[in-house]
Amino acid sequence: MPGQRWYTPYLFALPALALFGVFFVWPALTAIQLSFMEYDVVSPPEFVGLDNFVKMVGDSTFWTATLNSVLFLIGLFPLLVVAPLLLAVLVNQKLPGIRTFRMLYYLPVVTSMVAVAVAWEYVFHQQGVLNWILTGAGLLDQPIQYLLDPFWALPALILVEGWKSMGFYMMIYLAGLQTIDSSLYEAARVDGASAWQRLWRITVPLMIPYIAVAITMEMLDAMQAFTSVYVMTRGGPQDATLTLGYYIWSAGFEHYAMGYASAVGLVLWVVMIAMAMLNYRITKGRS
Amino acid sequence: MRRAGMYVLLTAIALVFVGPFLILLSAGLKPSGQAVFSFPPDIIPRPPVLDWVKEAWTAIPYPRYLLNSVIYVGATVPFYVLVSALCAYPLARLRFRGRNLIFLAILSTMFLPGEVMLIPRFLVVSQLGMADTFAGVILPGLLSAFGIFLLRQTFAGVPREIVDAARTDGCHELRIFWHVMLPAARPTLAILGIFGFISVWNSFIWPLVVLKDSAKYPIALGIAYLAGITGTDVRTLAAGTIISIIPVVVVFMIMQRHVLEGMRGAVKG
């Protein structure tokens, strides 16, 4: 091939490969190494073998964080895997102005989590809209301070995270819906299938690959919940909203237990890879 | 009739997604005599005032943070697009050893949770002497698996004849890349530019970890800082937050078709 020497492709890829080496491979190796060390940033790292992992087993705060992250994972499932599919079906209709609605549903996706968290603090206020609606509808006797309540703080954060990303998942599903041949629906309608039956019998089975993508991303999102926690609750009240993501940050940058924080991160990483693979297996088997 | 019901439903859902921003906007524009919170909610400011915008502007070094965000966007977006394009071109069009390995390695970074990399990446950046610097914030953001993935798709779709014609004219690969591939990929480049702008403008965790000096904060960190100052008035915080999202919302509104199309393209691949 004229003009191409053997090294030409590598030269093109060089900037990306250099960044990959410095900001992914090197840190990943550092993370593995640090997991077996004690390091407080001030004194040099010290090899401690499996101590960090042993400590983790007996660390009740770690288990609280794990439980909260699992609750995040469960709580986000209806918000990010189920509801966006219904939204996508809704905005997949051919109606004038439907693009505007898609855009409005997508708006929280493009705004920063910080701004979203601040906005929801106003919604959650004791005298705020949510309390007004719920007390007005007779669902609550007393206004609640959601973010200060050990029971309600976590559901409130899950709601905010779900609300922010719902539009994103909706667009994933919308892309999938637009690949479905509309004659399938016509045929089903002729056979007298109800809208619900069409959803269950046609849409859902054909959307399995997209649902798999949504589930994988939902797991990544749930396990990484951080900014909402940082801005709205700082893990409180009484560790009620302490997630693994926040715990890693707090152990590393508030308590300077870099080794321990890395070990927790490593465990999270392994668990996430395992979950992604499991999800891949299950959905592969189904489709 | 069914159609009217559909619009009522669509509008009600739209209100759920836009409502919290409207509440924020209303709080930021209300005069001091009007309660921010009340049962029932009193949303319309009477009259709207800009006092709190001015207050937010000076309560924190607001213009400075906006400028910082502009710098972060300006220094990240063009280079991340270029790095992605350079890497995507051989992956899409040239045959060489290790091509699949390189592509898989880069794709694998998508599945690396950001929080897990936070500490080790901070330590690496510190070792490179880039802690608390603009470079430390910017450089790790230049590698984008999403960008490489999307451009690889686009380049692979450029008709062979155009490239072959350029080759027989004696163009070397860099010229083909610059004069044939990049112009052909313009829509994808635009999408990546918009996505890059949104993500850098909103970036929070990484700058939080890298930066000590608050004078280098991007606007999202500035808002968190404003929210964290005890005694910040709820109206000031609302006004400050609203200004911070205006640039991104405006860009999104103008480019919404590209953003949503781009997402669809990414998913289909």
From TrEMBL, chain A:
One of its GO terms (biological process) is transmembrane transport. Residues 66-279 form the ABC transmembrane type-1 domain. It comes from the Bacteria. The chain crosses the membrane at residues 12-36, 70-91, 103-124, 199-217, 257-278. It is a multi-pass membrane protein. One of its GO terms (cellular component) is plasma membrane. It is found in: Cell membrane. CDD domains: TM_PBP2 (cd06261). Keywords: Cell membrane, Membrane, Transmembrane, Transmembrane helix, Transport. Belongs to the binding-protein-dependent transport system permease family. This is Putative chitobiose transport system permease protein. It comes from Nonomuraea dietziae.
Automatic annotation (TrEMBL), chain B:
It holds the Pfam family BPD_transp_1. The chain crosses the membrane at residues 7-29, 70-89, 101-122, 134-151, 189-209, 236-255. The keyword Secreted does not apply. Residues 66-255 form the ABC transmembrane type-1 domain. One of its GO terms (biological process) is transmembrane transport. Its main location: membrane. Gene3D superfamilies: MetI-like. It comes from the Bacteria. Keywords: Cell membrane, Membrane, Transmembrane, Transmembrane helix, Transport. It is a multi-pass membrane protein. It is found in: Cell membrane. The keyword Cell membrane applies. One of its GO terms (cellular component) is plasma membrane. CDD domains: TM_PBP2 (cd06261). Belongs to the binding-protein-dependent transport system permease family. This is Putative chitobiose transport system permease protein.
